[in-house]
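INTERNAL AUDIT FORM
Audit reference: QA-55
Scope: verify that the stored structure record matches its stored sequence.
Auditor: D.O.
Record contents follow.
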Amino acid sequence: QVQLVESGGGLVQAGGSLRLSCAASGRTLSRYYVGWFRQAPGKERAFVASITWNGGSTDYADSVKGRFTISRDNAKNTLYLQMNSQKPEDTAVYYCAADPLPSHYYTRTFDYWGQGTQVTVSS
């Protein structure tokens, strides 16, 4: 099984930037379709972004398009989320997640999750 550990969260002012990292261990990250999710207090966990095994295709929630960039470095076994132009509504616990390959659009599930990292955006 793959283990995932997020890092890079913190406090940032609106309009600022943060980069989150998700380090994978136990298995090579290239064996997984991976993504980022976030959860604010009292709300459901929401999709943020995802990326294919080789970085060839990405998907973003409408709320973060043009501001966030997901990437992966399989050589370093690490997933990233670059967050620019941040807004207070981006405040949440951010999680990385992985779906073992093969991962198809209509049957995709994320079976493995990190513990999350807190991101707080002040106005």
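Auditor finding: record pair retrieved intact. DSSP finds no helices and eleven strands in the chain.
Action required: none
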